[in-house]
Amino acid sequence: MWILLLILLMIAALLWASVSYFYKVAIKRTPKPMIIKNTEQMAGDKVVSTSPDYSWIRAQSPEQVEITSFDGLKLCGTWIPGKGKENKIVILSHGYTGRGYEMAGFARFYIEELGFRVLMPDHRGHGASEGDYIGFGWHDRLDHVRWIDFVIEKWGEDSEILLHGISMGAASVLMASGEKLPSQVKGIVADCAYTSVKDELSYQMKQMFKLPSFPFLPLVSLYTRWKAGYRFWEASALKQVKQTQLPILYIHGGEDTFVPTSMAHELYRESAGDKYLYIVPEAAHGTSFLVDSEGYKRHIKDFVARYLGQNTEIRTEKWL
């Protein structure tokens, strides 16, 4: 009897240690050495993180701005007013372990080629923003609502807002789509988004840690609910896009094995509003903008022309 009890206690202790470790590695705000070891994630990060031309950013007279989140955190971002006369604004949402400045390659495109103004927030638990955990998009969706209100207050009721995210940032703007957003939000660009936190972490447990999702993922989810206030099962971009009529442009690499390309197809099928899917066959995770820059820009320009103002010729065909 005592031996059985001891064995059960040892199993419980091992499970607790494993759950605590996975939370620290994946969710807690700490350095992420496992990302450095993942070559595909590094490839995606490299495209985003090396693209900023910091001298160009400084030349744009950027403004450091901040808001308070729904749960009292100070969230920081970079506002670039641009030189255009129109009230078109894009909110750029960065990926896992990144920061707003790393979206500056996209910012330059929107400012120089489309005349937009740009907001690049740091997600909670990232960059200059407060927070001791990573929300994987779920709490960030409500932060995006606050940033949208900030933009409207700053630039006026006639603002036209586009949300554009990559990887975790793409999932976060899709999760925001299911909330009650103001009419100033006109559309979403989601580059290599995952369907849900449960799906992505279950996939990565097998890919990176060679572990079955059960029983570890449900236990880590409970632990995350205790430490960070959300469960993996509720954090679903798939659920949210079923509830929105906002038009969505999905972009994904055909060779993405970090967030499987199949997730883009699933999100596309379930979206309730106008939807477009652009697969870059040779792109890995987060590299579509680099692999096919002209195609990427063309699809965004078409999307913007269709849903934000009527200043350029609008194409009538849908694209896949």
Keywords for this entry:
320 residues; alpha/beta; eight-stranded mixed beta sheet; disordered C terminus
Would you kindly provide a written description of the structure presented here, covering whatever features stand out?
Helix content is 46%, strand content 16%. It has an 8-stranded mixed sheet, with helices on both faces. The protein is globular and about 80 Å long. By secondary structure, the protein is α/β, with parallel strands linked by helices. It has 13 helices and 8 strands.
How far apart are the first and last residues' alpha carbons, in Å?
Answer: 63 Å
Strand content: 15-25%
Structural class: alpha/beta
* Major sheet description: 8 strands, mixed
Q: Unreliable stretches, pLDDT < 50, 5 or more residues? A: 42-51, 311-319
The averaged pLDDT comes out at 88
What form results from the Cα inertia axes?
globular
- Total DSSP E strands: 8
Determine the number of helices (DSSP H or I, runs of at least 4 residues).
Answer: 13
The topology string of helices and strands comes to HHHHEEEHEHEHEHHHEHEHH
